[in-house]
Structure formats: C-alpha cells, structure tokens
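Researcher: Structure prediction, please.
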Amino acid sequence: MTVLDAWGKPVNPPDPTTCDHGVTFDEVKARKLLDAAPKAKSAVDFIIGNSNANEVKKRWPRGWFTAKNPCPKGCPYKGIYYASEMHYLMGDW
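Model: Predicted structure follows.
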C-alpha cells in the first residue's frame, strides 16, 4: 500500500526500475487464445494480423503512463510499459 502525503504524492515512491506498474500478462492463456484464432488464408489476412491479438490487448493492456495518467503504484515512471517481451509480441502492438 502506498502512503500519500497531504498533497496526494507518495511518501516513499517505489523504484521505477523494480516497479511492475500494475501491468500483468498471462502468457499461457494468451498463447491458447492466439492458437485458437483462424489461420491466415491470404496475404491480406497475414498483413492484417491475428484477429485474437485485439482480445489479448483488451485482457492484458500495456501500461501507458504520463503526468496525467501516473503509475498506479506511485513510482515516477513515464512511458509505455509491458509486463514482458512476450506481452509485447503476443499483443501484436
């Protein structure tokens, strides 16, 4: 739990290099979801990508932190965050 001061800022914010920013990803479930998608039948299908990648994005969204949308755990990180390399790849970002 993060302790806030009178201005709503974390008293001891977590280290951004070790904070997970509340972003999660279940690689096993994502792999099953992507494997269940229909296979590409043409070059256009291949270019458009896997239709279930959008479902992966909905279930396990990436973190996108700015001054207006800060890390929910209180660390000062700003930018895009993925739970893992496979999170990035399987979401077809």
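Model: The mean pLDDT is 83.
Researcher: Thanks, that helps.
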